[in-house]
Design brief:
The chain is an alpha+beta fold and 632 residues long. The protein contains 19 helices and 35 strands. The protein folds into 6 domains: 175 residues, P-loop containing nucleotide triphosphate hydrolases (Rossmann fold, 3-Layer(aba) Sandwich); 79 residues, Beta Barrel (Elongation Factor Tu (Ef-tu), domain 3), CATH 2.40.30.10; 86 residues, Beta Barrel (Elongation Factor Tu (Ef-tu), domain 3); 43 residues; 64 residues, Arc Repressor Mutant, subunit A; 118 residues, Orthogonal Bundle (Arc Repressor Mutant, subunit A), CATH 1.10.10. It is 35% helix and 28% strand. The strands form 9 sheets. Strands 7, 8, 9, 11, 12, 13, 15 and 16 form an 8-stranded antiparallel β-sheet that branches. Helix 5 links the parallel strand 5 and strand 6. The radius of gyration is 38 Å and the shape is elongated.
């Protein structure tokens, strides 16, 4: 069954609550204070089912809002998720201040359709009713409620006159309302929190996107608390799931005291609350100029906070003007692109403008020209272009798919579709879940190549630069570094051996005296066998300086030509390999060997015997048992 949310709007005592009751039979005023004073103070809710023009059932959910100027903040909490509006104008009073303010709010929130209702028509004669109708039609002309395409219907909640006509109009317009996206990621702004005996904590709201199900886990924003849905109702009836556009009540396994109107429920570990949001801001023609860095009251869905408006490249914004601005919030909110908001003057508190969120994850220290260009792309609302712009602005950090979901509110499937579109044009570089702008990758690859080349130039006796040292030198994240390095290796512009990165054909380049010294070192240890000389004595006889000699030794150790088995002892690999064979051969005569036996077997002194036996233990050739070794 299609669900449509209808919000009332209009001046105090213009019959909004009576109209909802006449249509649905439900009194939306639930508070004792509302009953006593005869006015709506907080949000009220009702529902009605009507057949659409095609005969299919249509479920209408009503959000009844207060009309008194002191309760506009409560009214704003109920208008964020509505599909169409019932603008109530009393026939005996015509257009009043809150009529204008509520109407402005609906326009700023981009409400697309609705019906204007001339209430209390039984209190005036036909001539007066006709005059009021003319006034109202003139007031609405050129707006989304223009009488050319939106009906103006006179009703009496007392006598029932006009109600049938209004229901037909509601069914007609409601059937034309585009359904909200039930496949999107779910978000439910909380407008009521209460405790129900026998059930516990209950929250209600209009599900603005996606689907929520019984028993699933949700996250509360901005607190980050995780909660489980124990039960749910949709338009007052038990349900297993709720879809976008429905009035929803959730019984949560949560502490009521930690929940409040203005919070939002969404899938866990998906989104991030924000204290800054870049937006397109529009001022009402009736407002005063708004200065840069002015403080305002900001309302988005059911939330309210104080915001500082930082204008983009302007000192102030004039009445009726639209600009880009950053809203710096006093409290964190969950906002996503395309969310609508209202701003009210700090004092006196009156509605002065509103707008649409473009980016709820703005980067710090972005050049103004670049920021303006980025926001213009977002404002054009082209999905593929928006994704490209978000990847491009991340430069060398790249954009992870999870970040893209959190920034846009799109499901991964939607992002993948845009990626397929852009990939055909070669616009996106990708490594797993990391997305990067190709031009950035090319710049990184050039830097990486130059860094390796510089390393070879400065370290001719070192075979290559370690991967981690290279990454740290460039100050790149592991994912970005891996992407750039892999592309260079695939294109054969770099070689990799173990953990060392080098240019193709690069590596150790030795001068004649260095090559001669390398051979002298190797020969000295090869000829010595297990009676290896002291390393310092070998190096002392070389023609090269100490620094270059040490680099040659490092190279020999890296290539495992020489093996260092203790702080002071270095052996040629051939000598140690022969030692392994000798010990294994001894096993057939005696499976155990002690230090004395080992000295006799190898012809070495105790100075060499103990470190060599410890080396064999580490290599699992022998295992120490007391004062002996078992040959393995």
């Amino acid at each position: 069954m299609k669900s449509v949310i209808i919000g009332t709007a209009g001046h105090i005592d213009h019959g909004k609550t009576a109209l909802v009751k006449a249509l649905t039979g439900i009194d939306a005023d639930r508070l004792k204070e509302e009953k006593r004073r005869g006015i709506t103070i907080d949000l009220g809710f009702a529902h009605l089912e009507l057949p659409s023009p095609t005969g299919e059932p249509l479920r209408l959910g009503f959000v009844d809002v207060p009309g008194h100027e002191r309760f506009v903040r409560n009214m704003l909490a109920g208008t964020g998720g509505i599909d169409l509006v019932l603008l109530a104008i009393a026939a005996d009073e015509s257009i009043k201040p809150q009529t204008r303010e509520h109407f402005d709010i609906c326009r700023l929130l981009s409400v697309r359709s609705g019906i204007t209702v001339l209430t209390k028509s039984d209190l005036v004669d036909q001539e007066t009713l006709d005059v009021v109708r003319l006034e109202v039609e003139e007031f609405l002309r050129g707006s989304f409620l223009d009488p050319v395409h939106s009906p103006v219907i006179a009703v009496s909640s007392l006598t029932g006159a006009g109600l049938d006509e209004l229901k037909l109009a509601l069914a007609e317009i409601g059937s034309q309302v585009s359904a909200k996206d039930s496949a999107a990621l779910a978000r439910l702004p909380i407008d009521r929190v209460f405790t129900m005996k026998g059930f516990g904590t209950v929250v209600t709201g209009t599900l603005i996107s996606g689907t929520m199900r019984k028993d699933e886990e949700l996250e509360i924003f901005p607190t980050g608390q995780r909660v489980r849905v124990r039960g749910m109702q949709v338009h007052g009836r038990p349900a297993e799931e709720a879809v976008a556009g429905q009035r929803t009540a959730l019984n949560l396994a949560a502490d009521t005291e930690k929940l409040a109107r203005g919070m939002m429920l969404a899938p866990p570990a998906t989104f991030h609350s924000t204290l800054r949001t870049d937006a397109s801001l529009s001022m009402l023609a009736s407002s005063r100029p708004l200065k840069d860095r002015a403080r305002v009251h900001l309302h988005a869905y059911t939330s309210e906070t104080i915001a500082t408006v930082v204008l983009s490249g302007k000192k102030q914004v004039a009445p009726g003007e639209s600009v880009f601005a950053q809203l710096r919030l006093a409290d964190p909110l969950l906002l996503l692109p395309d969310d609508r908001f209202i701003i009210r003057q700090f004092s006196p508190v009156i509605t002065i403008g509103g707008g649409v969120v473009l980016d709820a994850a703005p980067l710090l220290k972005t050049a103004q020209d670049a920021q303006q260009s980025f926001l213009k792309v977002l404002a054009e609302n082209n999905g593929a272009s928006i994704l490209e712009a978000r990847i491009s602005r991340r430069a060398e950090t790249g954009l992870a798919l999870a970040q893209a979901v959190a920034e846009t509110g799109w499901r991964r499937e939607v992002i993948e579709k845009y990626l397929r579109d852009t990939a055909r044009n070669g616009h996106i570089a990708r490594a797993g879940d990391l997305l990067m702008w190709p031009e950035v990758i090319e710049r990184l690859k050039l830097r990486l190549l130059q860094t390796v080349a510089d390393f070879h130039s400065q370290n001719p006796l070192v075979a290559g630069m370690s991967k981690e040292a290279l990454r740290e030198k460039l100050q790149l994240s592991p994912d970005v570094f891996a992407l750039a390095l892999q592309q260079l290796i695939s294109s054969k512009k770099l070689d990799i051996s173990g953990e060392l990165v080098r240019l193709p054909g690069g590596g150790v380049v030795m001068k004649d005296e260095e090559a001669e010294s390398k051979k002298l070192i190797e020969d000295a240890f090869l000829s010595a066998g297990l009676k290896a000389p002291a390393l310092k004595d070998v190096l002392a006889g070389l023609k090269v300086d100490k620094n270059r000699a040490q680099k040659i030794v490092t190279l020999l150790l890296r290539d495992k030509t020489l093996l260092k088995i203790s702080e002071d002892l270095v052996f040629h690999r051939n000598a140690l390999e022969e030692l392994r064979k000798t010990v294994h051969a001894e096993k057939s005569r005696s499976p155990r060997i002690d230090v004395s036996h080992f000295k006799d077997l190898t012809g070495v002194t105790r100075k060499y015997a103990i470190p060599l036996l410890e080396y064999l233990d580490r290599e699992h050739v022998t295992r120490r048992v007391g004062d002996e070794r078992v040959i393995l």
